[in-house]
Amino acid sequence: MSIQQLYTEAQQLSTAKLRDDIVQQLYERSHRLCAEGIKYTKSNRDTRTEKLDAIFTSPIFGFPIMLTMLGVLFYLTIAGANIPSSMLAEFFGSMEKYLTAFFSFIHAPDWVHGVLVLGLYRGTTWVISVMLPPMAIFFPTFALLENYGYLPRVAFNMDRLFKRVGAHGKQSLTMAMGFGCNAAAVISTRIIESPRERMLAILTNNFVPCNGRWGTLIVLASLFMAANFTGGLKSLVTTGVIVGIVMFGIIVTFFVSWVLSKTALKGIPTHYTLELPPYRKPKIFDTVVRSSLTKSWSVLMRAVKVAAPAAILTWVFANIFIGDTSILMYAVEFLDPFGKLLGLDGYIMMAFILGLPANEIVLPILLMGYLSTGSLTEVDSLVDLKQIFLDHGWTWLTALNMMLFSLLHYPCGTTLLNIYKETKSKKWTFLAFLIPTVIAILVPFIITQTVRFFGWM
Amino acid sequence: MGNSYRVALAGNPNTGKSTLFNALTGLRQHTGNWAGKTVSLAQGDIQYKDKTFNLIDLPGTYSLFSNSSDEEVARNYIVFEKPDVTVVVLDATSLERNFNLALQVLEMTKNVIICINLIDVAEKQGITINERILTNRLGVPVIKISARNKKGFPMLLDTIDRIVTGAIDCQPVQTTYPDDIEEQIKKIEPKVSELIGNELSARWVSLRLLDGDENLLNEINERFGQKERA
């Protein structure tokens, strides 16, 4: 007799409620064991976690608290990063003067100065001064929330929503990872067992802004959206805009998950167990040091590594002329009509295309593009920065569209590579590129055409 | 290699299993806040007296019914790789829920140690655990430790040592099920014994077959089929 026959025989004997009976028996025995072997002498069981959970995961307060936490997190990041950012920018700006002086002192050819100082130096220092301060605040604060035990509560709150759109509750965890880095988050989707729901999580992860895009979002929001406010109110309005953008990204995540789970990835969400660990006071010093040193540093190094070659490339494109037009300008002029349809322009489209390897470099490339054409301004502060944008016909609509495009567009090169490694499918990797791209084109297009139709702009 | 023994660590997520593993082996290893997919099992060696204990950190699971690949990895290791000792780590503050996993392990293998962790937290909460009663009811050693404060380690290592030398003979007390299930087991068990011999617990395999565990069926087919061919 084979084991297969035995299995068939066993199945004929067995009843549907066998598993329930087994589990019930196991729990009854556990209960008896505890009754016999355990004494609860004091009644001071830890009720703090339960009390906190009643608030944090409450159907009424849960979501407002989550939104507030998110807002506070961004506010701290934006308000706190402002001053160190401009200090760094000023510092690097003044260093640049010395560098330029040095290059003319050794009689270096113009192109060497161009590639190294105007290209490489400006590009990378820009990335550092814009990205380092927000990251040095965002990551440790996020890590504190995580270590305190709040993140599993977020997953708990979001679970219902993800279930409703046919996705897995754990997708809220991979989504939270995406705020740090989409490429890492794609790998973290391994925690989702079902291949269908894992694919949903992979395809939609890009709709939460990773830290490579925070820089772009924060700069544009504070320059254009909160332009008429000053002081603390300015940071507050910027925060509001950023929270709005993030919320929109999450709504798109739900929408795309829902559409996919009704079409290409049909199915019913599977169950899972989510343990809510007790709230623990995080080791503040440890957490802050570890996350700012390891995480911020590694992300920054990656950014610089990608930014450096891209900066050189952009400078070269902007300075090699065919006839009397640079290669960059040919591309810009080619892309311009399409960009205008979306309320953007050729430079912006160019920056996003060249920025495929890493989102961090989109804004620096854009600036280099603008600066390479005539109106040469020293970018010492954010005010100068705004002037550059205004000189190229920017309005709040341009800024909004660029923010939305940045939020929604195709994943960066590293993320796409990880998606391919994880799914081992060219088709799904291509879809992971296509779906966000189509949405990123449609949303600004609709907004721009609506605004123009009603003559608001 | 005659003095080397494999010791598997099983337990629910968030019971401090990985903390125990790190404290014992000194091997740095990431402890995740939520149950993830352990692709490769972390291993580390401990020297104790004249022996080497090779510790294997199984994925944290709530049960071993092979509902997920984590559960399957843990289950297959215990059943088919046959570690010399299986240590089940329980959270002292939520024992009633944690015992469920321990009882399942007792059905699968003989040499089990029930290791109640976080005993310091439990004592603060006024929970007193009588390990002698529990040892008596379960038929295997029950030990209280605090992995974070490295309390109870000598006792744990000594117990592992005494199990592998045969000084302690574990006699896991099996869970009895309602009469109808017990009768079904009785019908299947002798045939299972005949087919797979003493390699696996016949009672446990019978239960799994009755429960319709196709993953286990495939696993047995694969492993035992290969053996026959070899």
TrEMBL record, chain A:
Membrane spanning stretches: 54-78, 98-120, 126-151, 172-192, 212-229, 236-260, 306-335, 347-373, 428-447
Matches recorded under Pfam families: FeoB_C (PF07664), Gate (PF07670)
The Nucleoside transporter/FeoB GTPase Gate domain, residue ranges: 130-220, 302-425
Gene Ontology cellular-component terms listed: plasma membrane
Keyword Disulfide bond on entry: no
The name this protein goes by in its record: Ferrous iron transport protein B
Keywords from the named record: Membrane, Transmembrane, Transmembrane helix
InterPro entries, per the entry: Fe2_transport_prot_B_C, FeoB_GTPase, Gate_dom
Example of a GO MF term: ferrous iron transmembrane transporter activity
From TrEMBL, chain B:
Domain FeoB-type G span(s) in chain numbering: 4-166
PROSITE patterns: G_FEOB
UniProt key word NADP: no
Molecular function via GO: ferrous iron transmembrane transporter activity; GTP binding
Keywords on record: GTP-binding, Nucleotide-binding
Cellular component terms per the entry's GO annotation: plasma membrane
Highest rank taxon of the organism: Bacteria
PANTHER family: FE(2+) TRANSPORTER FEOB, FERROUS IRON TRANSPORT PROTEIN B
NCBIfam families noted in UniProt: small_GTP (TIGR00231)
Protein name in the entry: Small GTP-binding protein
Organism in which the protein naturally occurs: Neobacillus niacini
